[in-house]
C-alpha cells in the first residue's frame, strides 16, 4: 500500500454528504464552509454511535444525549460561554443568559481534533474499500 500526502489538494468532487462531513470533522474542509454546528452534530452522532461517551464527563452532562442543541448548551454553560441579555417584556425587563452555541461547537470540534474525546474511527467496515 502506498500513501501520498498532498497538503492543500482535495478532490474537486465529494462523493456523499457523509464523506464531506468526515472531511470537515478532520479539518480538511474549512469549518465555516460546512458550519461548526453541523460538524458538531455529526461528531455527536459518531461518538454516540461508537459508544464513546467521554464527552459526557468532560462537559458535565447527566448522560449521553443525541440532541446537539442540548449538548452545545451544556458545553457553553460549562465553559462560561454565555452572554447576559436584557429582554424587554410587557411587565418589565428580564435578564437572561444566552449560550454561545458557535463557541461551544468550536470547542467540541477542537477537543475531538486534539484526541481528547477518545479513539474514533470515521470509516467503518467496507466504507474505505469502495
Automatic annotation (TrEMBL):
One biological process term in Gene Ontology: mitochondrial translation
UniProt key word DNA repair: no
InterPro entries listed in its UniProt record: GTP-bd_ortho_bundle_sf
Keyword Nucleotide-binding set for record: yes
GO annotation, cellular component aspect: mitochondrion
Name of the protein this chain belongs to: G domain-containing protein
Keyword vocabulary terms for this entry: GTP-binding, Nucleotide-binding
Cited PANTHER family: MITOCHONDRIAL RIBOSOME-ASSOCIATED GTPASE 1
